[in-house]
Here is the input.
Amino acid sequence: MLAWTIYISFLGVLVLMLLPRDDARLARITALTTAVAGLIVALMGSFQQANPAEIVTITKCAWIPTLGASYYLAADGISLTLVVLTGLAAVAGILFSWNIEKRTKEFFAFYLALIGGVYGVFLSFDLLLLFVFYELTIIPKYFLIARWGSTRKEYGAMKLALYSFIGSHLVLIGLVATWAVARTSLGHASLDLKELAQATLPLEFQKWAFPLTFVGFAILAGMWPFHTWAPTGHVAAPTAGSMLLAGVVMKLGAYGCLRVAMVLFPEGARMWSGTIAVLAVIGIIYGAGVALVQKDFKFVIGYSSVSHMGFVLLGLATLNTVGLSGAVLQMFSHGIIAGLLFAVVGRMVYDRTHTRDFGELEGMGLSRALPFAGVTFVLAGIASMGLPGFSGFVAELQVLMGAWKAFPVAAVVTGIGIVVGVAYTLRAVQKAFYADGADRTNMTHGAHALEPISIPERLAAVMLIGVSLVVGLYPSVLLNWIEPCLSSPLFERLLKGGAL
Amino acid sequence: MNVLILKHEITLLLLALGVMLADLWLPPERKRGLGYLASAGVGAILICSLLTSVPESPFAFRQMYVLDGMALFFKRFFLVATILVLLMAVEFSDRIQAGISEYYSLILFASAGMMFAASANDFALLFVALELITVTFYVLVSFQRGRATSLEAGVKYLIIGALSSAFMVFGIAFIFGTSGSFNFGDIAAKLASPEAGLVNNKLFLFGLLFLLVGLGFKIAAVPFQIWAPDVYQGAPTPTTAFLAVGSKAAGMVLLMRVLFVAVPEVTAQWWKLLVVISALTILYGNLCALPQTNIKRLLGYSSISHAGYLLLGIAAATTAGQSAVLYYLSGYLFTVLAAFVVIVLVLRDTGAEEISSLAGLHQRSPLLAAAMTISMVSLAGIPPLAGFFGKLLLIKSALVVGAEHQSFYWLVGIAVVGVVISLAYYLGVVRAIYWGGEAAEKSAVTLSLPATLTVAACLVGILFIGIYPNPLMKAAEAAVLSFK
Here is the structure.
């Protein structure tokens, strides 16, 4: 059933390509229908799955027998969490791009192709298949940013494409080497993730294959110091593009780190976990610190993404159940919240005011002119800061608890990052929406000029805030999927060493 | 001896002669359509070759000629390439002032040369086949007599081609002088027996080195690549396409036969040389392609880099490496021909083959824009397109060998650096198509039905090989196993 998320998305691409060129409305509706259908399938499929700890096979058939590759789609609780996230982000992104007038149908075609690839990555349990879906996303990302983006869009798009490509080639070398090594220990060629996870790979091999693969994926997860594509890419992308980049594409990287690099090379992960933790903490603090001094509203969110993804990586580095489930929960939570933040900045504010400069926004009194945007941003900011009640709180708390067990010093230092996180969020809220400097005339002028927040925007914002609240108040809804997974045989060797 | 073993080459030559003769009686306005007829004829030969299997005694002319699985694989390869190039030539015919029928028949002659090259099991046939290819290409390259660049390209190709032929003859003379035979099988047997002492015979190795120089010119490997960009740029586009696909593949098949059938012992010693050449070729091709503004020149440099990737598979010297080469070439065939078909159809004003003149193509013809994009993305090796699996198989074969020879890890590293660099310039072409500034020409590109079908055939090839690689991988493996 879940496989249909992929097929529906690509079917949507085909249908969009056949639509008449000028009918933007039809294209929007088609795209929305496709995304909603994908979300419904994702939700139904996820809640149907009785035991999330188990890896439930969806389809499996031979693809390239000589390499041992098969078309193998399956899902466990972690896949389910991220598939649902993808569905939500897809629908929200389309609602927030309702105002795209330039080549609408092509925009949504690339958009849905990207979504289809992302679903594919989260559902693949064959390494080659996973990799194919992973690389499939490069071209849609490139097109979305370079054609429909804004500030330095071509630079941002090319940078992202090259970074992704470098990362995926590191991964490719790691995968091929694993295939070759596992072939001797297994006695036959295999690219089946479950099978490879059981193969004992030599320690010497894991020692270099792990960092290669992990870094390859982590480039896309925005790990410091390979994060530099993220702020420029996010800023250059159109609103829906940055929502997807931050919401799901960065998750692809983090998911790859966990699902491929850590599961395949558990001993390697243990060897390198300290280094990853250090890089993650630097990322958290650096991202937050840089976000604090930005003049461009969107750059604040761009760097905050780097900071929040640092939590995911820190959670992964803990190598214990609490930390890992926190990391997965943080992937979900950040996907929702970052999507919302980018939507406010890109769609609600920038598309109306045509500026993202705090100096100019200060004078506009946006909290009066766009009250809905103000409230949304405050709520999203609260969620982003990690205040209780929203999903970010539960996720970051879990990561910190995990880190406390594994790297007490890292957990303490991360505290600085959280404080700075509060500071940059409040600064952004204050400068963009509640600045004192706004004089009356300017404000009324602004209020006249700005069109009100449209219904699709309201719908999407309410949906995202609602999801974040539900997960924040009742995290078990996701943790019941994530935690049992981590005790499955797939993660056994990874977590064997870490108590808790 | 069974002459019928040569039936494909014989029919192809008869077809070429037929096209030339038909020229005498056909009215000028109908000569253009002769290309369709020729490609239909080649199609019939292709079907015939698909029905042919390897005969019990695969040799002919005292083992000069061999029809093994490898030969058959490459014959099919060349026939597919010829069909597509002929269709391309029909679209190009309005830009050739005189003698379009000769152009068709020269393509057929070159194709026959490639078919012989696929079957060469003897240095004499190797040389004759290569000369048949090269001499026809001298004419094909300079066929647009009115254009100075075409003539310049022709002269360059002639001089460098003659030079490389001289190297090759010189090398073959030494090989014959020291081993006493032209035949690959005999030489291999002599090499294997220690009392002949051929492995350490300096003159023999010297001759072999010269032969490799000659083949290096054909596949445009560094340091014998110097002609490629100029010739690619100046030659009529269908010629360039045939040069990129056919001539290179002919060089590759001969290289594989010489290295793995005739002199396997020497190859086992010389792998380091191949690794170095492969690395340099990859880096040179990709780095030089970066600043190019002419699309054909860009593809010229890109073809150098692809020769480097192919040499990586040859340097690995394993069955996996060789079948990866075959797979890669097949993917490259459809990918590059798709690009050249688009160039033929879009850049009608032959003076302006700048990348920037592709601007606005997505509005003039969405199909061609998509075809060019897919072709570029496939050349960069992004799944699910043909280029990806070729790259994957090559990297796989090299990494497996790396367990024995560490330097292959470096080679893979360089190959990966090259692939990443290549993405930048391939995306540059994509950029020009979709948002490369104002289009000078805004009118829609009119496509004839055969042209559309040609583009569609290339796209289907790229996608099929990329999504379901199994049949081709099996065929490539079978071909390699048969020639051991």
Summary: The first strand of chain B starts at residue 59 and ends at 60. The beta strands of chain B are 59-60, 65-66. The CA atoms of residues 76 and 253 of chain B lie 13 Å apart.
